[in-house]
Each structure stands twice: as C-alpha cells, then as structure tokens.
Design goal:
heterodimer; A: 114 residues; mainly alpha; 49% helix; B: alpha/beta; Glutathione S-transferase Yfyf (Class Pi), Chain A, domain 2; 4-stranded parallel β-sheet
C-alpha cells in the first residue's frame, strides 16, 4: 500500500437503517420507559460515577438509539446503582433498570445468547 | 425526490442561453487535467455545429482558485475579470462562454455584486482604466460551456452516430451526472434546473439516450474544495467526499460519470486509483473503475470523434469499457501515440485498479459477460 500522506476518513454519519440496535430492543422489552427519555441530562448531572469517570446515562441511551453497542459495553459497567439518577429524572424513567438491562444485554451479546 | 417533482422544479429554473457568436474563456486548470476537453468543445461548436467562437490568447486566469484560497483580494479578482470583459468588448462579442465552473461562479458573483452595488462596478472600471487603459461592456449573455451544449443538445443528438445505449444489449447506459458546486449552488437561478437537482447534464445525457442514476449522495460535493486539495494534510477530506459518492453510486452499477467542472472529473477519476491503492477497492466492472468524462468528451464521443483525439488516454480510469458498450471504434495501438504517431510513453500500472493498456482483454470480458 502506498503512503500518500493522507487517509480516508471514516464516515461519522449514523445509518439508522443498518445499525445494530439489539441493546435498545432488549432494554425496551424489559423497560419501556426508555422511550420517555428526552436526553435532558439530569441523570448525568446527578450521577456519582460521573464525578470520577466519563460515565453518562444520557450518552448511553443516545448510543443505544444509534446502535453504537461497542461504546455502550465500554462504559455501562461503571454504574454503581446508587439510584440518584432515578430520583432526579423529570420523566420518571426507571434509569436503574435501564442500566441493569443494558449490562445484561451486553453480557448476553458477548455470550452470543441474543 | 420523485422524478415528477424534479421536472416541476426544473421548469422554475430556466435561463437564456445564446446559440452563436461566443467569446470563449478557458480554464487554467482544465488544460492540465484533461488537455483535450476544451479543444473538443471548440471543435464541436466550430466544425460540427458551424458556430462562431472566438478566443483571445491574451486572456488570463480568472483568479478564482486564488480568490477561494484567500490569497487574491476581491478587488484584484474583479479587475482581472473586468479585463476579460474588456477583451470580449474589444473583439466585438457580447456572449461570454465560460469553460470552468469556478470562473462561471465567479463571473456570476461579480456581476451580481455590480448589479447590487454599482459603486463597486465603477470602482473596478477605474482600477482597470488605471491598470490597462481598457473599457468594457457587461456581457449580454453569460453561459457555462455545458449550458451551451445543453441548449444545442437536440442538434447534437441529431448529428450523433453514437448514443448512450449499450449497442450489444440495446439498454440505455446508466449515467451518473455530477455538477460542480459553483455552477448553481451560489446562484440557483443562474443554472439550468436550480441548485438541488440541476438539469443541465441530465438533459444532455437524456438527449443522447442515457438513463440518469438517482443515487443518495447525488448532490454531495466531489471534495475538490480548493483548500482541501491545495494543502496535502487536508486531502483526506477531499478523498473521503469522493469515496462517499462512489460507495453511494456503486450499487446502481453506473456505466459512466459525467461532470461539468474542472475539479470533479479530475478527482472522481484519480481518487478511484487512490482508493484502490489504500483499500484495495474498485467500483467498476471486473476490477476496473467507473469511467469519468467531461461533458465535451461525452459529446465528442457521441459525435464520433476519435477517443484518443479527445484525450481519453489521459484519464486514470480506462474508458475502453464505455467505448465498447457505446460501439465507438478505436485503435488500441494508437492510445499512447502522439499526433505524428510517435510513442508518448505509457503510465505505470496501478497496484489494484485495473487499467487498460491494450484494450483486448476488456473486449473479451465485456462481450462474454
């Protein structure tokens, strides 16, 4: 391969028709309130784990909707299940259950169970 | 967008195009990219259609590339353009035919500026007077060369012995048309068909029997964008734009790409080689690329000009598969022959992209597929 001194840049466009939304579908079946989320970020601002890590539930839900599962798996295990996000959510989304189901889905995907 | 919608849209964007007596201004980069394209345009108009076209060897670059790269100030650009108009006026012509899309966009932009700010026009006249002692008239008609071929498309089609139809299967060839951004994205009413889906090359290809491919990234820029290729570190952006288009058009299996810009055919042609070298990917049939033609080359082919006279050997992607489909006769042994028959040298073979040196194996593969 020739080194031209520049590269093809990966397209960052999200293709909603072809992306893999297995995690979103799995969570939605167990916790339909995920669809109430309006990405306001209150959960992320109340989050204990976010103090010391880049963890953000708001981001996780957006990633699930985009089908960016690899990024979810990298981040979802940082939650300590303290439940402050659940208390803070203005739309009463069951955030703790969402994170639990995301972790479960990530495990099942890695075990080829779903 | 549905086709009916496009047709309705196209009707709203029409413009007057002169049909004879042109003052022709060439492009500074096209003569390096595809050296015979402009000569082919002159041959079509002067020899085949019997039109009057005059060009003054004293005309210069329009400074468009320098202007868009921020190295030439607008006042200088306007004075240089005013000088081109002065040459046209002195030669007694009123219709300006522009070879380059960047120049066409720039002329349009300057004429619009002068229309809205007459004091700037007066200032430019003063600059030109001081610099050269010349005076100029505003062109009565400003048209891009592709506009003119569009306007004369039925006349051309009537004289064309070859059409955009696969002469083996009888099916229309699938044509990807790509319009330079500066044709009408800045001033939609100055382009045939507007900015979203310009009709200029669609009309030309349809008149020659081709079928237009309506693919998702049809209106995406080719990536030429002056700053992107001038600076080497930015060329990845340019390449990525073209690749995005190739990936989008590939499923439709286009037989050729036609363009009306200096940069688009160059990059759509050359980047196919670079993508091949970087990722081992090719977009045409049997490891070939998709042939990329300028509008003059396409019309020249249809009119039966020798493919090597119109410069198709200077393309990175081999045009032979297209020639065979159209039924255009060509002599493979003369591909790299100069005007007097001398050998002008052969390019090195790319690692991935299959190019044709002798055309014979393409003959066999296409006829048997």
């Amino acid at each position: 391969m020739i080194d031209f001194g520049y590269k093809i840049q990966t397209d960052r466009q999200i293709d909603y028709d072809s992306n893999d939304r297995q995690i979103l579908e799995f969570v939605r079946r167990g916790e339909p309130s995920i669809d109430w989320c309006m990405s306001c970020g209150t959960c992320a601002s109340a989050c204990t784990a976010a103090v010391t890590t880049e963890y953000s539930l708001r981001r996780l839900i957006i990633l699930a909707r985009r089908g960016m599962n690899r990024e979810i798996v990298e981040s979802v295990y940082r939650c300590r299940f303290c439940g402050k996000c659940f208390n803070a959510c203005p739309r009463s989304v069951n955030t703790r259950n969402i994170v639990y189901l995301m972790q479960l889905a990530a495990t099942k995907i890695s075990n080829h169970e779903i | 967008m549905k086709l009916e919608g496009k047709r309705r849209l196209w009707q709203e964007y029409q413009k007057d195009i002169a049909t004879d007596k042109f003052f022709y201004v060439r492009s500074c980069v096209r003569q390096n990219f595809f050296p015979a394209a402009e000569q082919t345009f002159l041959r079509i108009l002067q020899q085949t259609l019997g039109k009057t076209v005059y060009e003054n060897p004293g005309h210069t670059t329009c400074t468009g590339i320098g202007y868009h790269c921020d190295v030439v100030p607008l006042n200088t650009t306007m004075t240089v353009v005013a000088r081109q108009f002065a040459l046209m006026t002195e030669a007694g012509y009123e219709n300006l035919a522009v070879s380059c899309i960047t120049s066409f966009g720039l002329y349009t932009e300057i004429l619009e500026t002068w229309h809205h700010f007459p004091e700037i026009e007066e200032q430019t006249r003063e600059f030109l007077r001081k610099a050269t002692g010349r005076e100029f008239m505003i062109p009565k008609n400003l048209a891009h060369a592709s506009d003119i071929l569009y306007k004369l498309r039925h006349e051309i089609a009537a004289k064309a012995p070859f059409r955009l139809i696969n002469h083996i299967t009888g099916e229309p060839l699938k044509v990807v048309e790509h319009i330079g951004c500066h044709y009408s994205k800045m001033f939609p009413h100055k382009g045939i068909g507007g900015a979203e889906y310009p009709y200029v090359l669609v009309g030309l290809a349809e008149a020659l029997g081709g079928e237009i491919v309506d693919y998702p990234e049809r209106r995406h820029c080719c990536g030429f964008g002056f700053r992107q290729y001038v600076v080497r570190a930015n060329r990845g952006y340019s390449l990525s734009c073209s690749k995005k288009k190739f990936d989008s058009m590939e499923p439709y299996k286009p037989d050729l790409i036609i363009t009306n810009c200096p940069g688009c055919p160059y990059f759509l042609d050359r980047w196919q080689y670079v993508v091949g070298e970087m990722e081992g990917k090719t977009y045409g049939e049997n490891g070939h690329g998709i042939p990329v033609l300028t509008y003059e080359e396409l019309v020249g082919l249809a009119l039966g000009y020798d493919p090597w006279d119109i410069g198709l050997q200077t393309h990175q992607v081999s045009s032979e598969p297209l020639l065979i489909k159209m039924g255009v006769p060509f002599d493979p042994s003369k591909k790299y022959a100069g005007k007097k028959g001398e050998n002008i040298g052969r390019p090195a073979k790319p690692g991935t992209l299959k190019i044709d040196m002798d055309a014979l194996h393409i003959h066999e593969s296409i006829l048997t597929s």
